[in-house]
Amino acid sequence: MNPKNRAERVVALDAITEEAEKLAASGADPLTLKSFTIGARKELADQRPDVENYFDAAVAAKKAKNSF
Fold first, then answer.
1. CA–CA gap between residue 54 and residue 23 (Å, rounded)
2. Separation between Cα atoms, residue 50 and residue 35, nearest integer Å
3. 63 vs 3: CA distance, rounded Å
4. DSSP string of 42-54?
5. What would the pLDDT profile of 18-50 be if each residue is shown by its tens digit?
6. Which residues contact residue 41 at a Cβ distance below 8 angstroms, ignoring those fewer than 6 apart?
């Protein structure tokens, strides 16, 4: 992943963290926080995919599948 995309992902992850902290401070229950963070991270992955990590995960999954 190029440095610009990585920096944008870091900024977005910080924004997700800040929003989750605001939700927690306002009294949101843990399930709501978890749902928000999972959804936000999935949306981030759709908008700014990390192809290198995806490729590494696919290779690891294939190795694991072949080991059975």
1. 30
2. 22
3. 29
4. HHHHHHS--HHHH
5. 999 999 999 999 999 999 999 999 999 999 888
6. 13, 16
Cβ count within 10 A of residue 2: 7
Cβ 33 vs Cβ 24: under 8 Å: yes
Please report where in the chains the tokens 């399930």 appear, as a residue.
31
Instruction: Return left, alpha or beta for 27; rule: phi > 0 is left, psi -120 to 50 is alpha, else beta.
Output: left
pTM, two decimal places: 0.74
Q: Judge contact between 57 and 48, C-beta under 8 A.
A: no
Residue type at position 19: E
